Amino acid sequence: MLMATIVFCGIVWCHYKSLAYADVPKRPNFKHSNNTEFLHSVKQCVDYVYYHNDVEEVNLELLIAQAALESGWGNSRFANEGNNLFGIRTYDLREPHMLPSNKPKKWGVKVYKHECDSVLNYINILNKGKAFTEYRKLREEGITDPFILTETLDAYASDKYYFAKVKSILIKIRKDYQ
């Protein structure tokens, strides 16, 4: 059963609930040498997560723009060593984590076994996090514009220019990768 079909980066992508085994989304190897390959790997993770987990979908463009921003297009230390595409923190320092260069003592950046695990955690944060009720409210109202949804992410980062940075990447993705 086909759930949704979108065109992204010039390719038709589909989310499926029921597929022949050979077509079941698999985790990408996540090796990339350019931004297009990074975007495709993130999208493959999204398909993998939606197929293998019972989670409500979040805005794909926003997810990918945040992954690009937070991970430096997959090139940051947290992305490369910790498979963390979103800069997701942990305050439970018994969990696997990495310390940023300023070495805070109360939190670390989560470490994942695979990048797709960070995608799942990001989706769960938007779907369940107390700070993102406005995001969920707009989504329930049928708002799909990632530029509007970006404005609900004030709890995601402390950078006062965060919205502008996310929006700039959204524009870049639409311009250069469609």
Task: List descriptors.
alpha+beta; Lysozyme; 5 strands; two-stranded antiparallel sheet
Q: Secondary-structure blueprint of this entry?
A:
Elements: E1 2-8, E2 11-16, H1 35-52, H2 60-71, H3 77-82, E3 89-90, E4 97-98, E5 108-110, H4 115-128, H5 133-140, H6 146-150, H7 162-176
Antiparallel strand pairs: 1-2, 3-5, 4-5
Helix pairs in contact: 1-2, 1-4, 2-7
Short description:
With 178 residues, the chain is of the alpha+beta class.
What does this protein structure show overall?
It is a single chain. The chain is of the alpha+beta class. The protein has one domain: Lysozyme. Helix content is 44%, strand content 11%. A 3-stranded antiparallel β-sheet has the order 3-5-4, with no helix packed on it. A hairpin with a 2-residue loop joins strand 1 and strand 2. The relative contact order is 0.14.
